[in-house]
Amino acid sequence: MTDFTSLGLAEPILRAISDEGYTTPTPIQAKVIPSMMDGSDILGIAQTGTGKTAAFVLPILHALCGDPMPAKHRTCKALILAPTRELAAQIGDNIRAYGKHSRPSVAVIVGGAKIPPQIKALAKGVDIVVATPGRLLDHVASKNLRLDTTTKVVLDEADQMFDLGFMPQIKRIMGYLPKKRQTMLLSATMPKQVRALAQVFLHNPIEVTVTPNSKPIDRIDQKVVMLKTADKRAALVDYLATPDMERAIVFTRTKRGADKVCKHLEMYGFASAAIHGNKSQNQRVRSLDAFRKGKVNVLVATDIAARGIDVDDVSHVVNFELPNVAEAYVHRVGRTARAGKSGQAIALCDGAERGLLRDIERLIKRKIDVVDRPADSGLKVVPEEERQVLQQPEPAQRKPRRRKPVGKRNEGGGKNSSGRPPQRNRRNRKPSAKAKAA
C-alpha cells in the first residue's frame, strides 16, 4: 500500500488528510486501518510519534460516515480512553482535523475541567467520547452517560494507564460496555499486566508490532552529565543558556520538584512554566498553549508530559532527574526530534541515579555518552522587581469610566430629569413622627 486512497477510506476523510499534508500511511497505519475496517480487535505495540492516533481515528471516522443516524441521548458510538488530559485533548483535536469534512460530534471528558459543559455535551448524544477513566466513571455513575450502545473502544497508552493505577477503573468501564464490540488496545510496551488485560477484553485480536521495543529516535543526540545533586540546578541554568537552546522541556520526578525548578529558572530570567497533576486544567492548558506559541521557551514537567505533548521545534529535552521506570525515559526524549528534525537529550545524573541510568542503557541497548558540564554561563539572579516586569504582561488600558449626569430638580414636583423622585441620603432624612415620639 503506497497511499491512503488504497486503504478504502471514505472520500471526506481522504480530503481531510490531504488537507493535513498526509500522502503515505506509516507502517502502523497501513496495518491497523484495514484490520479495524474489517471489524477485528487490535493489539498494537507502537511508541509515540509513529502515527498511531490516525491509525485508530481514521477507521472510526470511516465507520461513522456509513452510519448517519445520530447517537441517542446520553450515549456515544465510540469511546477512546487516554491516561492524561493533555493526550485526550490532543486526540480530540486530531479527530476534529481528520473529520472536518464529515463533522462528527466529539466530547472530551477529563478531570479538572468544569462538569456542566460536559453534561450538556453528553446530554444530546455524541459520536465519539475521548476521556480519562476517572472523570468518565463520574459521568456514568451520575447517569450522564450510558455505554451500553458503544460499539468501538480504544485504549490508548495502556501501559501508562497501568503505571498510573487506572486498571481497576478500566475494568469497571469495560464492564459497562456491551460484549459485542470492537476493541483496540495500544501500548508502547507490553508488560504482563497489559497482555493479561488484552486476553480478557479482546476477542481473537490481530497483533500489530511496529517496533519490538521502545527505542529512542536515532536523530536524538543523547548525553549524560555525572554530577552531585547540589550542582544540578546550576548545571541546568548553564545548559539552558547555551546559544543552540531554542525550546526545551525539563523533566522532574515529582510535582513539587517541578515547581521548585521552575521558580529557580524564573530567578535567572528564563520564561518558564510548570505542568503537572496538581495544576488545574486551565493552568495546564494555558502553560502548554504558551509553550506552543513561544511565549514560554522552557516547560518544566513531570511524566504526564512525556506522552501527549506534540510540539514541534523542541530542541532539547533535559532530564533533571532520571525516571524510576526506564520506559519513561524513551517517551521523555521522544518529545524532541519530531517532524523529521534533530534534537538533543541531556540527563543530569547523580550518584543515587546510576542504577536508573544502567536500566535505561539496558533498555535502549546502548551506552549514553558521558560529557562534562557546560561552561559557566555567567547568568546572575534577576532582581525581583525586574522579574515581575518580565513575567507579567502590561495591564490593558481601561477606558475612563463615564459618570452619569445627576438629574436636576425641575420646578414641577421635585423630580429629577429622569422623572423619578430624587433619592435622599439616609443621614439627611427627616426623622419620622415615631422617631420623634421616642
From TrEMBL:
Chain segments carrying region Disordered: 385-438
InterPro entries with a match to the protein in the record: DEAD/DEAH_box_helicase_dom, DEAD/DEAH_RhlB, DEAD_box_RNA_helicase, Helicase_ATP-bd, Helicase_C-like, P-loop_NTPase, RNA_helicase_DEAD_Q_motif
Pfam family, one: Helicase_C
Protein name: ATP-dependent RNA helicase RhlE
Statement: the UniProt record of this protein carries the keyword Cell membrane: no
PANTHER family referenced in this protein's UniProt entry, alphabetically: ATP-DEPENDENT RNA HELICASE RHLE (PTHR47959:SF13), ATP-DEPENDENT RNA HELICASE RHLE-RELATED (PTHR47959)
Organism encoding this protein: Candidatus Phaeomarinibacter ectocarpi
Record keyword Manganese present: no
